[in-house]
Automatic annotation (TrEMBL):
<dbReference type="GO" id="GO:0000462">
    <property type="term" value="P:maturation of SSU-rRNA from tricistronic rRNA transcript (SSU-rRNA, 5.8S rRNA, LSU-rRNA)"/>
</dbReference>
<feature type="compositionally biased region" description="Acidic residues">
    <location>
        <begin position="790"/>
        <end position="799"/>
    </location>
</feature>
<feature type="compositionally biased region" description="Acidic residues">
    <location>
        <begin position="601"/>
        <end position="610"/>
    </location>
</feature>
<protein>
    <submittedName>
        <fullName>Quinon protein alcohol dehydrogenase-like superfamily</fullName>
    </submittedName>
</protein>
<dbReference type="InterPro" id="IPR011047">
    <property type="entry name" value="Quinoprotein_ADH-like_sf"/>
</dbReference>
<dbReference type="InterPro" id="IPR015943">
    <property type="entry name" value="WD40/YVTN_repeat-like_dom_sf"/>
</dbReference>
<dbReference type="InterPro" id="IPR001680">
    <property type="entry name" value="WD40_rpt"/>
</dbReference>
<keyword id="KW-0853">WD repeat</keyword>
<dbReference type="GO" id="GO:0034455">
    <property type="term" value="C:t-UTP complex"/>
</dbReference>
<dbReference type="GO" id="GO:0032040">
    <property type="term" value="C:small-subunit processome"/>
</dbReference>
<feature type="region of interest" description="Disordered">
    <location>
        <begin position="718"/>
        <end position="822"/>
    </location>
</feature>
<dbReference type="GO" id="GO:0003723">
    <property type="term" value="F:RNA binding"/>
</dbReference>
<feature type="repeat" description="WD">
    <location>
        <begin position="272"/>
        <end position="304"/>
    </location>
</feature>
<dbReference type="InterPro" id="IPR046351">
    <property type="entry name" value="UTP4"/>
</dbReference>
<dbReference type="Pfam" id="PF00400">
    <property type="entry name" value="WD40"/>
</dbReference>
<feature type="region of interest" description="Disordered">
    <location>
        <begin position="580"/>
        <end position="611"/>
    </location>
</feature>
<dbReference type="GO" id="GO:0030686">
    <property type="term" value="C:90S preribosome"/>
</dbReference>
Length: 890
C-alpha cells in the first residue's frame, strides 16, 4: 500500500467557549439501585466559537464524540447549561430518569434549546434586553428534605446590567420578566452561579459581586474587590463565580486572583494570587474539597483546603495543559469517574483527574471531528474536504502521470496536488455532511435545512481550465441531513433526516447534445426495524437520542445499504428489481412494513424510479444482534464472499471488532474464532477511538487520530503468540485493568515510563517473531512539518520510513529473502508515527496509466494508494496572546 502523506487540507480550529455536563455528580448507589442508575445518561456538551455543539460520551474514560450539531454564519456558542428534571417512580419498581434539556447562549439576546434527538435547534426565546453574557439554571428546592424540580427558571445576565428570568415549564422556553435593572448601563453581568434555590450570585465588570434574591429582586449584599493594583484597568472584571456546597463563594477575576468569600457574611475570607493574568473559568468538586481554575496565562491550578484551618485554601500545583487561554471548565463525579474538562482557544478539550489530581495523567482529546470531513473519489483521484459553508476539491496526480511529466525523476509525492474548485454552499447553516461519487462526477452536500447536489463536468474543459460545476435539481422535503452517501455505482443518494430517518433517491442520467445531465427522483423512506424501547427509558434522560444514526455504508456493488445508531442497532436493506423479492426471487416483503415503528407515508416503501428498482428491508436484518456499544466504523469488504454475501465490519467504542454476513444475518466464522480477548493488545488498549477503515483485499487498515493498524482478517489471532512487550517494556498479553484504578482521564502516573518510541511488525507464519521498524531521524522528523507558510504550498513527505511502509506485505522490511516471505503472512502491524490523522482516503491508479507510460507501467506501482491527511494544530492557527509583564513566550 502506497501512502501519500498530506497536510494541505485545511480544517480551521474553532475555540472552545463553553463546556457542561448533564450531571455534576452521580452518587455511588447501592447494588439494588444500580440497575436504575445505569439509565442516567451522562453526556458532555462542548460549544465552539463557530457555533458547533459537540456531544461527548465519557464511557468511563473512552470519550466518544457522538454527535456534532453544526453551527452557522455569525453564530457562536458562548454558554451552555443542562437542565435535568426530577426522577419519577412508576410501577414495577422502575424509575423514569429525569429528562435532560440543553440550552445555549451566543452573546445575542436569544436563548436556544437544542433537540438532540433530531440534532438541530428546537426553540428560541428572546426578550427586550441586551446581549446575554451569562446563563444559569435554578437548582432544585430542598424544602422538606427532598429535592423538588418544579418551577425552575433560567436566569440570564446581560451586557446592559439586567438580570432576566426565562420560564422552562411544560417543556417550553419563553421570556418571563426582568428581575434586576442596574442604574448604570456600563455595568455588565459577566458570570453567574446559584448559592441556593432562591439566591443567585453575579460577577460584574465594575469590581463587584452581587447576591440577589430572585423571588423579589432584592439585593442581599454587594461584595467589592477594589481596584486593580497591578497598573491595569481601574475596574476588575469578575470572569467566573462558583459556589461551594457549604455556601461559600469562589471568584476568579481579571487580576489573576482567586478569592474565597464567606457564604453567610458575604465577606472576603482569602485572596490567592495564583495566575499572572486573568482567571477566566472555575470549577469545584461536588464535595467541596477541590477548586480548579484556568486563566489567560494557560495555567490550570488546583486548590485544596488547609488542614486545621477552616475556610482557608492553598494552591497545590499548577500545570500548562493548553497552548492558549483556558476559557471554560466543567466537572463530573460519579462511580468510577472524577474529572474536570477544560477548553479554550487551542480547540483541544483536556480531561484532568479531579479526585486523583496529581496522581493521574491528564488526557488531551482530539480537536478533529470523529466523523472526518473528508471523502475521496478513487477512480478520479479527487479529494473532497469541507468546513463551514465551503467545499474544496483537490486532484492528486498518479505516479504514472508524474513519470510522464518528468521521466527522469523518481517517484515522488511532492507537489502532486492541484486545487480544482471551491464551492460555497449558500445559506446560514454550516455543512453537516458531504459526499462525492467514486467517478467524481456527482457532489452532494447537506446542511441543517437543505440538501444540494452538483454535477462535476470534466469533459468540456481542457487541461489547465477549471472543471464545470452544474447544479442538480434535487427534490427534498425541505429538511436537511445529518449524514449523506452516494452509492458506488452513482445511481443512488441516501441520507439521514432528523437524526434517525433514512431516505433514498434514485439518480437519473440524461444524455443530450449538451452532454450528460443528472437529476434525482422523489425520495423514499427506508423503514427501520421496530426496536422495543422500555417506556421508563424512552420518556426520561435523553429520550430517543441513542437512535441517532452515526454510520452508513453501501456495499461495493451498491446492492446493500447498512446503517447503525448510537444504541448499537444495525439495519440493512437490499436493492431489488421489478417483481423481485427481498431474497432475490419473486414475492412480497411479508410484514416488513407492519413491523416498522412509524408509518408516515403510505408509499414510503416504494420508489418512483421508472426502472422499478427499490430498496426493501433485508429479511434477515432482525437476526443481526444489538452491539454492546456504539459503533464507530461500519464498512463493507471490497470483494464478495463465495456465496455472494459481503463481510460487514463493525468496530465499537470499546474496540470490539465484529464481522457480519448481513444476507444470512449471522456473525462470520472469523469473528466467532477471534473474540475480543484474542485481538492484539495494542489495538485493544489504544485510547483513541477508531475513525475509519480502508480495505486492501483481506487486510483492513484501521486508523484513529494517532494510530494506524493493519489486521489480516484471513488469519486467526492468538493471545499467547500475539503478546509481546509494549512501548514501555511491559508485557501486554491481556486487557489492561482499568476498573478501580483510573478515574476517566489519562491513567495512573508510572515511574520510568518514558522511553523511545518503537514500531514493531509481526513476522512468521504464526506472528510469533517480531522485528523493529526503524523510524526517521530527528532531523527528518523536523522536516515533516516544514511549511512555507502558505496553505496550498505545504510539503508532502516522502521520507525513508514511508518507503518501507509502502511494502504491501503488512509493512515488513527485511533484506533477507526468508524474512520477506514471512512478512507476507504477517497477521497485524501498527504504528503511531502519523498524528494527528484527519482521515485516510483510498485512491486508484489512473485509468490511462498504460497510455501515459506507453504501455510500460512500472512494476513498483502498488495496487492501492491512500492519501493520509494530517492536520496538526500549529501556532499559526491560534489567535494572538496578551502577555503579562516579563512573559514573552509564544
Amino acid at each position: 500500500m502506497d501512502i501519500h502523506r498530506c497536510r494541505f487540507v485545511r480544517y480551521p480550529e474553532s475555540a472552545i467557549n463553553a463546556v457542561a455536563f448533564t450531571h455534576t455528580s452521580l452518587p455511588n448507589v447501592s447494588a439494588h439501585k444500580q440497575r436504575q442508575q445505569k439509565h442516567k445518561q451522562v453526556r458532555l456538551a462542548i460549544g465552539r466559537a463557530n457555533g458547533d455543539i459537540e456531544i461527548w460520551n465519557p464511557l468511563q474514560g473512552a470519550w466518544h464524540q457522538e454527535v456534532v450539531i453544526p453551527g452557522g454564519k455569525d453564530r457562536s456558542v458562548d454558554g451552555l447549561v443542562w437542565v435535568t428534571e426530577s426522577d419519577e417512580e412508576i410501577a414495577d419498581n422502575k424509575t423514569i430518569c429525569g429528562k435532560s434539556r440543553l440550552f445555549s447562549i451566543g452573546y445575542t439576546t436569544t436563548i436556544t434549546e437544542w433537540d438532540l434527538e433530531k440534532a438541530r435547534a428546537k426553540k428560541h426565546a428572546s426578550g427586550q434586553h441586551g446581549e446575554i453574557w451569562c446563563l444559569g439554571v435554578q437548582p432544585p428546592s430542598t424544602k422538606g428534605g427532598s429535592a423538588s424540580h418544579a418551577s425552575r427558571k433560567l436566569v440570564a445576565g446581560t451586557v446592559d446590567g439586567n438580570l432576566v428570568l426565562y420560564s422552562i415549564e411544560d417543556d417550553d422556553l419563553k421570556f418571563q420578566r426582568t428581575l434586576i435593572r442596574t442604574p448604570s448601563k456600563k455595568t455588565k453581568f459577566v458570570s453567574i452561579a446559584f448559592q441556593s434555590h432562591n439566591v443567585v450570585v453575579v460577577g460584574c465588570s465594575n469590581s463587584t459581586i452581587c447576591a440577589y434574591d430572585i423571588r423579589n429582586g432584592t439585593l442581599l449584599r454587594q461584595m467589592t474587590l477594589g481596584t486593580d493594583l497591578s497598573g491595569g484597568s481601574k475596574n476588575i472584571i469578575v470572569w467566573s463565580v462558583k459556589c461551594l456546597p457549604n455556601g461559600d463563594i469562589v471568584s476568579g477575576d481579571s487580576t489573576g486572583q482567586v478569592c474565597i468569600w464567606d457564604g453567610k457574611t458575604y465577606t472576603q475570607a482569602q485572596r490567592i494570587q495564583s495566575h499572572s493574568q486573568d482567571v477566566l473559568c472555575l470549577s469545584v468538586s461536588a464535595d467541596g474539597s477541590k477548586i480548579v481554575s484556568g486563566g489567560m496565562d494557560r495555567k490550570t491550578a488546583v486548590y485544596e483546603p488547609i488542614a486545621g484551618q477552616s475556610g482557608r485554601w492553598s494552591k497545590v500545583f499548577h500545570r500548562r495543559y493548553h497552548q492558549h487561554d483556558v476559557k471554560a471548565m466543567a466537572s463530573f463525579e460519579g462511580k468510577g469517574m472524577s474529572v474536570v474538562v477544560s477548553g479554550g482557544s487551542d480547540a483541544n478539550p483536556v480531561v484532568l483527574p479531579l479526585r486523583a489530581a496529581g496522581k493521574e495523567n491528564h488526557r488531551t482529546l482530539p480537536h478533529l471531528p470523529q466523523n472526518t470531513h473528508l471523502q475521496s473519489a478513487p477512480k478520479a483521484r479527487l479529494i473532497l474536504s469541507w468546513w463551514g459553508n465551503e467545499i474544496r476539491i483537490w486532484h492528486l496526480l498518479s505516479p504514472a502521470q508524474q513519470l510522464l511529466d518528468d521521466p527522469q525523476a523518481a517517484l515522488s509525492l511532492r507537489k502532486n496536488r492541484k486545487l480544482l474548485a471551491q464551492v460555497l454552499v449558500k445559506g446560514d447553516s454550516h455543512i453537516s455532511s458531504a459526499a462525492i461519487s467514486e467517478d467524481g462526477t456527482l457532489l452532494v452536500a447537506s446542511t441543517a435545512t437543505d440538501i444540494k447536489a452538483f454535477q462535476l463536468d470534466f469533459t468540456n474543459g481542457e487541461q489547465g481550465e477549471p472543471l464545470q460545476i452544474k447544479k442538480v435539481d434535487m427534490t427534498t422535503a425541505g429538511l436537511g441531513a445529518t449524514k449523506i452517501h452516494i452509492s458506488p455505482d452513482n445511481k443512488w443518494v441516501s441520507w439521514v433526516e432528523e437524526g434517525s430517518r433514512v431516505m433514498a433517491a434514485r439518480v437519473h442520467t440524461t444524455e443530450s447534445e449538451a452532454g450528460i445531465a443528472y437529476s434525482t427522483s422523489h425520495p423514499s423512506k427506508l423503514h427501520r426495524l421496530r426496536r422495543q424501547t422500555p417506556k421508563h427509558i424512552l420518556l426520561g434522560g435523553l429520550g430517543t437520542y441513542d437512535r441517532n444514526i452515526t454510520q452508513m455504508a453501501f456495499s461495493p456493488d451498491s446492492r446493500l445499504l447498512s446503517v447503525a445508531d448510537l444504541a448499537g442497532y444495525i439495519d440493512t436493506w437490499i436493492l431489488r428489481g421489478p417483481g423481485e423479492g427481498a431474497n432475490g426471487v419473486g414475492g412480497e416483503d411479508g410484514d416488513d412494513a407492519a413491523s416498522d415503528s412509524s408509518s408516515d407515508s403510505s408509499d414510503d416503501e416504494e420508489s418512483d424510479d421508472v426502472a422499478g428498482e427499490r430498496w426493501a428491508r433485508n429479511p434477515n436484518a432482525a437476526l443481526l444482534p444489538k452491539l454492546s456499544a456504539a459503533p464507530v466504523v461500519l464498512s463493507f469488504s471490497k470483494a464478495p464472499r463465495d456465496d455472494g454475501d459481503y463481510d460487514l465490519l463493525a468496530i465499537t467504542t470499546i474496540k470490539q471488532m465484529l464481522i457480519f454476513n448481513p444476507l444470512r444475518g449471522v456473525l462470520s466464522e472469523w469473528s466467532r474464532r477471534n473474540t475480543y480477548t484474542k485481538l492484539p493488545s495494542q489495538f485493544r488498549d489504544t485510547r483513541d477511538q477508531v475513525k475509519g477503515v480502508v480495505w486492501q483485499g483481506h487486510r483492513a487498515w484501521i486508523y484513529g487520530v494517532a494510530s494506524l493498524f493493519m489486521l489480516d482478517i484471513s488469519q486467526d489471532f492468538s493471545p499467547e503468540t500475539d503478546s509481546h512487550e509494549g512501548r514501555n517494556g511491559q508485557k501486554q498479553g491481556a486487557k489492561r485493568k482499568r476498573d478501580g484504578q483510573e478515574n476517566g482521564a489519562g491513567g495512573k502516573m508510572d515511574k520510568h515510563s518514558l522511553g523511545p518510541q518503537r514500531v514493531k511488525t509481526a513476522l512468521g507464519p504464526d506472528g510469533s517473531r517480531w522485528e523493529d521498524v526503524e523510524m526517521a531521524d530527528a532531523d527528518d522528523q523536523k522536516s515533516v512539518g516544514a511549511s512555507s507558510g502558505a496553505e496550498d504550498d505545504d510539503e508532502d513527505v516522502d521520507g525513508g520510513e514511508l518507503q518501507r511502509l509502502r511494502d504491501d506485505q503488512g509493512g515488513a522490511n527485511s533484506s533477507a529473502q526468508d524474512a520477506e516471505k514471512e512478512a507476507a503472512k504477517a497477521k497485524w502491524w501498527h504504528t503511531y508515527q502519523f498524528r494527528p490523522i484527519m482521515g485516510i482516503l483510498p485512491l486508484e491508479g489512473s485509468r490511462d496509466a498504460k497510455a501515459l507510460t506507453n504501455g510500460d507501467v512500472p512494476a513498483e506501482l502498488p495496487p492501492l494508494e491512500v492519501a493520509l491527511i494530517e492536520r496538526p494544530l500549529s501556532s499559526d492557527d491560534l489567535p494572538e496572546r496578551y502577555f503579562a509583564e516579563g512573559e514573552w513566550e509564544r
